Known about the structure:
Layout: E1 2-3, E2 10-21, E3 26-31, E4 45-46, E5 52-53, E6 55-60, E7 65-69, H1 75-79, E8 85-89, E9 111-113, E10 119-128, E11 133-139, E12 145-149, E13 157-159, E14 164-166
Parallel strand pairs: 9-14
Antiparallel strand pairs: 1-2, 2-3, 2-8, 3-7, 4-5, 6-7, 9-10, 10-11, 11-12, 13-14
Amino acid sequence: MARSARHGEALVCLGQIGAPHGVRGEVRLRSFTAEPEAIAAYGPLQTEDGRAIEIEALRPAKDHFVAALAGVHDRDAAAQLANAKLYAPRERLPQLADPEEFYYADLIGLAVVDRGGGRIGEVVAIHNFGAGDLIEVRLDGAGRTELLAFNDANVPNVDIAAGTVVIDPPADWLSPAPDAGEGDEATSLSGKRSC
Protein backbone atom coordinates (compact mmCIF):
# COMPACT_ATOMS: atom_id res chain seq x y z
CA MET A 1 0.00 0.00 0.00
CA ALA A 2 1.32 3.41 -0.92
CA ARG A 3 0.76 6.66 0.92
CA SER A 4 -0.12 9.99 -0.60
CA ALA A 5 2.62 12.45 0.30
CA ARG A 6 0.12 15.29 0.15
CA HIS A 7 -2.49 13.86 2.52
CA GLY A 8 -0.79 10.93 4.27
CA GLU A 9 -3.74 8.78 3.19
CA ALA A 10 -3.46 5.10 2.30
CA LEU A 11 -3.57 4.45 -1.44
CA VAL A 12 -4.44 1.18 -3.16
CA CYS A 13 -3.09 0.32 -6.60
CA LEU A 14 -5.99 -0.32 -8.98
CA GLY A 15 -4.16 -0.63 -12.29
CA GLN A 16 -1.16 0.12 -14.43
CA ILE A 17 -0.75 2.01 -17.68
CA GLY A 18 1.12 0.19 -20.42
CA ALA A 19 2.42 1.24 -23.82
CA PRO A 20 0.68 3.78 -26.05
CA HIS A 21 -2.03 2.42 -28.35
CA GLY A 22 -2.13 4.21 -31.68
CA VAL A 23 -1.31 7.86 -32.28
CA ARG A 24 -4.26 9.63 -30.59
CA GLY A 25 -3.01 9.34 -27.02
CA GLU A 26 -4.77 6.13 -26.01
CA VAL A 27 -2.91 3.71 -23.72
CA ARG A 28 -3.02 0.05 -22.84
CA LEU A 29 -4.32 -0.39 -19.31
CA ARG A 30 -4.23 -3.35 -16.93
CA SER A 31 -6.90 -3.30 -14.25
CA PHE A 32 -6.43 -4.99 -10.88
CA THR A 33 -10.01 -4.49 -9.67
CA ALA A 34 -12.34 -7.47 -9.08
CA GLU A 35 -14.54 -6.27 -11.94
CA PRO A 36 -11.82 -5.04 -14.34
CA GLU A 37 -13.97 -2.42 -16.08
CA ALA A 38 -14.81 -0.85 -12.69
CA ILE A 39 -11.43 0.89 -12.62
CA ALA A 40 -13.02 3.81 -14.48
CA ALA A 41 -15.67 4.23 -11.76
CA TYR A 42 -13.28 5.21 -8.95
CA GLY A 43 -12.97 8.78 -10.13
CA PRO A 44 -9.64 10.44 -10.75
CA LEU A 45 -6.75 8.13 -9.95
CA GLN A 46 -3.24 9.22 -9.13
CA THR A 47 0.25 8.09 -9.99
CA GLU A 48 3.03 7.51 -7.46
CA ASP A 49 4.37 10.99 -8.16
CA GLY A 50 0.95 12.56 -7.49
CA ARG A 51 -0.31 13.24 -11.04
CA ALA A 52 -4.10 13.01 -11.38
CA ILE A 53 -5.29 10.63 -14.12
CA GLU A 54 -8.91 10.50 -15.26
CA ILE A 55 -10.12 7.70 -17.50
CA GLU A 56 -12.50 9.18 -20.10
CA ALA A 57 -13.20 6.02 -22.11
CA LEU A 58 -12.36 2.35 -21.76
CA ARG A 59 -12.75 -0.53 -24.17
CA PRO A 60 -11.66 -4.15 -23.84
CA ALA A 61 -8.77 -5.57 -25.87
CA LYS A 62 -7.21 -9.05 -25.90
CA ASP A 63 -5.73 -9.16 -22.38
CA HIS A 64 -6.02 -5.51 -21.32
CA PHE A 65 -8.09 -2.40 -21.91
CA VAL A 66 -7.49 0.49 -24.27
CA ALA A 67 -8.10 3.72 -22.39
CA ALA A 68 -8.50 7.36 -23.36
CA LEU A 69 -7.17 9.60 -20.60
CA ALA A 70 -8.15 13.22 -19.97
CA GLY A 71 -5.54 15.63 -21.35
CA VAL A 72 -3.58 12.94 -23.21
CA HIS A 73 -4.05 13.53 -26.94
CA ASP A 74 -0.97 12.18 -28.70
CA ARG A 75 1.41 9.23 -28.65
CA ASP A 76 4.25 11.20 -27.03
CA ALA A 77 2.09 12.21 -24.06
CA ALA A 78 0.84 8.62 -23.74
CA ALA A 79 4.41 7.29 -23.83
CA GLN A 80 5.34 9.48 -20.84
CA LEU A 81 2.77 7.58 -18.75
CA ALA A 82 3.99 4.08 -19.69
CA ASN A 83 4.29 1.79 -16.64
CA ALA A 84 2.68 4.32 -14.28
CA LYS A 85 0.72 2.63 -11.52
CA LEU A 86 -2.71 4.09 -10.75
CA TYR A 87 -3.88 4.52 -7.16
CA ALA A 88 -7.09 5.45 -5.37
CA PRO A 89 -7.54 6.38 -1.71
CA ARG A 90 -8.42 3.31 0.39
CA GLU A 91 -11.64 4.91 1.64
CA ARG A 92 -12.95 5.11 -1.94
CA LEU A 93 -12.99 1.32 -2.23
CA PRO A 94 -16.15 -0.55 -1.28
CA GLN A 95 -16.37 -2.25 2.11
CA LEU A 96 -16.02 -6.02 1.88
CA ALA A 97 -19.07 -7.92 3.11
CA ASP A 98 -17.43 -11.33 3.43
CA PRO A 99 -14.91 -11.68 6.29
CA GLU A 100 -12.98 -14.12 4.08
CA GLU A 101 -12.37 -11.36 1.50
CA PHE A 102 -9.56 -8.82 1.69
CA TYR A 103 -7.69 -6.34 -0.44
CA TYR A 104 -4.11 -7.35 -1.21
CA ALA A 105 -3.03 -3.94 0.07
CA ASP A 106 -4.36 -4.98 3.51
CA LEU A 107 -1.76 -7.76 3.66
CA ILE A 108 1.27 -5.47 3.60
CA GLY A 109 2.95 -5.56 7.01
CA LEU A 110 1.14 -8.65 8.30
CA ALA A 111 3.18 -11.31 10.09
CA VAL A 112 3.93 -14.44 8.05
CA VAL A 113 3.75 -17.60 10.17
CA ASP A 114 3.97 -21.34 9.55
CA ARG A 115 1.10 -23.75 10.30
CA GLY A 116 2.33 -24.10 13.89
CA GLY A 117 2.28 -20.32 14.44
CA GLY A 118 6.05 -19.84 14.26
CA ARG A 119 6.96 -16.47 12.81
CA ILE A 120 8.81 -16.51 9.47
CA GLY A 121 8.71 -12.84 8.51
CA GLU A 122 6.29 -10.25 7.16
CA VAL A 123 4.50 -9.48 3.91
CA VAL A 124 6.15 -6.65 2.01
CA ALA A 125 4.32 -6.84 -1.35
CA ILE A 126 2.03 -8.78 -3.64
CA HIS A 127 3.24 -9.07 -7.24
CA ASN A 128 1.82 -10.35 -10.49
CA PHE A 129 4.27 -10.55 -13.37
CA GLY A 130 1.71 -12.28 -15.60
CA ALA A 131 1.84 -15.89 -14.36
CA GLY A 132 -0.21 -15.49 -11.18
CA ASP A 133 0.00 -13.69 -7.86
CA LEU A 134 3.15 -13.90 -5.74
CA ILE A 135 3.52 -12.94 -2.10
CA GLU A 136 6.85 -11.32 -1.16
CA VAL A 137 8.01 -12.16 2.35
CA ARG A 138 10.79 -10.36 4.22
CA LEU A 139 12.41 -13.17 6.21
CA ASP A 140 13.12 -12.46 9.87
CA GLY A 141 16.84 -12.20 10.55
CA ALA A 142 17.85 -12.99 6.96
CA GLY A 143 18.06 -9.51 5.47
CA ARG A 144 16.34 -10.60 2.26
CA THR A 145 12.93 -11.27 0.77
CA GLU A 146 11.58 -14.35 -0.96
CA LEU A 147 8.66 -14.86 -3.33
CA LEU A 148 6.02 -17.56 -2.95
CA ALA A 149 3.13 -18.37 -5.27
CA PHE A 150 -0.02 -16.96 -3.66
CA ASN A 151 -2.38 -19.93 -3.92
CA ASP A 152 -4.45 -22.04 -1.50
CA ALA A 153 -1.73 -24.69 -1.14
CA ASN A 154 1.04 -22.24 -0.20
CA VAL A 155 -1.10 -19.70 1.64
CA PRO A 156 -3.88 -21.68 3.36
CA ASN A 157 -5.05 -18.91 5.70
CA VAL A 158 -5.16 -15.12 5.85
CA ASP A 159 -6.45 -13.63 9.09
CA ILE A 160 -6.57 -9.85 8.81
CA ALA A 161 -8.01 -9.47 12.33
CA ALA A 162 -5.18 -11.51 13.86
CA GLY A 163 -2.61 -9.79 11.63
CA THR A 164 -1.24 -13.06 10.22
CA VAL A 165 -0.75 -14.85 6.94
CA VAL A 166 -0.20 -18.60 7.33
CA ILE A 167 2.07 -20.18 4.73
CA ASP A 168 2.87 -23.80 3.94
CA PRO A 169 5.60 -23.49 1.31
CA PRO A 170 7.18 -26.35 -0.63
CA ALA A 171 10.14 -28.01 1.11
CA ASP A 172 12.66 -26.39 -1.26
CA TRP A 173 11.27 -22.85 -0.93
CA LEU A 174 14.32 -21.45 0.85
CA SER A 175 16.89 -23.60 -0.95
CA PRO A 176 19.57 -21.75 -2.95
CA ALA A 177 19.06 -21.52 -6.69
CA PRO A 178 20.52 -24.58 -8.53
CA ASP A 179 23.23 -22.51 -10.25
CA ALA A 180 24.13 -20.45 -7.16
CA GLY A 181 27.76 -20.59 -6.16
CA GLU A 182 28.97 -21.46 -2.69
CA GLY A 183 27.80 -18.84 -0.22
CA ASP A 184 25.31 -17.27 -2.67
CA GLU A 185 21.80 -16.55 -1.52
CA ALA A 186 18.69 -17.55 -3.45
CA THR A 187 17.50 -14.88 -5.86
CA SER A 188 15.20 -12.32 -4.28
CA LEU A 189 13.47 -9.08 -5.18
CA SER A 190 14.61 -7.02 -2.21
CA GLY A 191 13.52 -3.43 -2.41
CA LYS A 192 11.14 -3.90 -5.33
CA ARG A 193 7.51 -3.18 -4.64
CA SER A 194 4.36 -3.61 -6.61
CA CYS A 195 0.72 -2.66 -6.20
